[in-house]
């Protein structure tokens, strides 16, 4: 997302970019830049896909740095920082090319439509923000005394001119530099080198990279800028064969001819970064490698019937099937089908000779570096991330077993292959790791928030997230249950009946405690809904309710499920008793009567045993409002379309807001789903959450929150999070003794100090949060913050949809809105109950339709 940043220049390069607001700057001398307030400069940092990449574009509004007027095509100017000056007593890997130029050496011009081609995602807020843990400005190296000012020379246009170019008309080193003046590569090259440089400076990461990996990095550092740019484009693309001409656009052909691209790609192949296509006799495989446009041309050239068909309508696999079928049906003069096929394969190899693909081992090396740099992507998609604390026992998952492959298999509905991969391969690897006492003991000695970066945790998440899901879609419930039991107890016993308390493996309990509730819930659904084994399901639920690692919302969900199972058991028991009463012991078989009475006795025992299960009562008010809807006369549409005045298809939340404003006189309303409450929590206790003294929670310069925030109790129980001897728990409780004005002053203080930071606080909602705080009062804010601090990961979601307040009489209310067919979840019910318990007006608002509006005016049908 775009982030406005400030650029300053000094003698060394810091580890992070400062992201403060900036104005037009002009160059006064060789080493400094002053910021003026006349014209605005926007410096955009772009972070697409998995790797955050930054692009620094300066809108000079027709002026160059020196103040001179420039052409219209020079509105955007690219700034390339050079390498930082390094201390004499340390040696770091240098990933920047020798041909890279600083802003003082060369000013490369970029065309105006650069931003459109970047495809930058829109950011909701225009606020300037900066990294939360790096506050230093990004600094450029001093100007080199041997730098040469850039002059547009007449460069060679053909291969012969390029090979015979003697450099008389321009310095030889500018030949390569001119060819790198394209619209795509500069900012990606800059950030790519920056990321690798920072990883190379981390001495604690050295053990993660083998000698072969270091050799790969050294080879990359010696590449020319153009070779680096092309390699980066290949790296950021999908891993498949490509034609050289697809790497450049038509607008780049003049500045970056194809023969230069070919030369760079051959160099990359020689160094092992790229692979060429191997000799293959399989015709469909060769055709599948070819680009779709080349495939259409090739098909029309060698197949007579393909010339008469519209190949543009055919998809690639359909085109390949038609080509192979047409080729087999073509008559041969010498009646030798193999000769004709060999001829086509030979022509295919000639056509595919220039095709290249990224080397798998090289790709893994650079992805490893980017995973280490990108710890800010703290989600389930980054299971392959590894950090310094696990350097001694990391086991990297192979490419055919990683999460990216599993996602692709699921997306293609290849559940059979995905299930087989997880059950046979991943499960066996987990068993081997679990049996390694040294590995597991070391893993359990680490903090919980660091365990998720281990190979055991990665494989366990893959087994549950993809393996179990695929097995259930294939209706292999036995295998799915076997995997779930293994993740719960570290056991593979199929006859586990949960009748007596089961002791889980201590290593499993320590590493996967956060996910045990999900395992219990999925296993209970399988046992009751699919396998119809209600007794085992109830035994499992009883075990889960006594497990202290299960979160509150999962416990409530399982409790509700046990009530439904008991209800079905009572119904079944009634049917069994009726059936048994109809049996005549004198005429029926004695065994049949005994079987029925035995089943009845078991059902009665289950009813008695689980009827005593109690859960704290969930209390909240419920209100129902009716609003006009369009009649469903549009065919098979099931969607309920609400009307509000002249507006059509109004969301149910907007209907509820309109109702509460008119009926209950609220003048402020916000549909934020708890964002205001989370904003208050992070703002009031910003210094505790972002305490830099806490070890092993700040490992990346891109983090927006500490690693341990998703660990239950970590914020409250941390001994390091103390300010003036006061812990976070004491600070939250102290809010009860403060006035509303003191809370507002604390919020304003946080805003002034940290408003430019990218963090947990949504600064766009800050004014609304302050207004809400003035109505809620210290006691309610303290209670809500304590709820969040206990288990932020599970309690950050489930907040009511709406928060409404009146600034005049200081009333406020929270409302969960549900439309037709929508049910309240466990988390939402718990939050409504929490608000009610602390004296907040909390309601569940059900919006239903009133069929009094015809489809068309005057139409009563």
From TrEMBL:
CDD domains for the chain: FAN1-like (cd22326)
Enzyme nomenclature, EC number: 3.1.4.1
Enzyme class: hydrolase
InterPro entries from the UniProt entry: Fan1-like (IPR033315), FAN1-like_euk (IPR049132), tRNA_endonuc-like_dom_sf (IPR011856), VRR_NUC (IPR014883)
Sequence ranges of Polar residues compositional bias: 79-98
UniProt KW keywords: DNA damage, DNA repair, Hydrolase, Magnesium, Manganese, Metal-binding, Nuclease, Nucleus
Top-level taxon of the source organism: Eukaryota
Principal subcellular localization: nucleus
Gene Ontology terms describing biological process: interstrand cross-link repair
Compositionally biased residues, Low complexity: 9-22
Function description: Nuclease required for the repair of DNA interstrand cross-links (ICL). Acts as a 5'-3' exonuclease that anchors at a cut end of DNA and cleaves DNA successively at every third nucleotide, allowing to excise an ICL from one strand through flanking incisions.
Family: Belongs to the FAN1 family.
Protein name: Fanconi-associated nuclease
Originating species: Romanomermis culicivorax (Nematode worm)
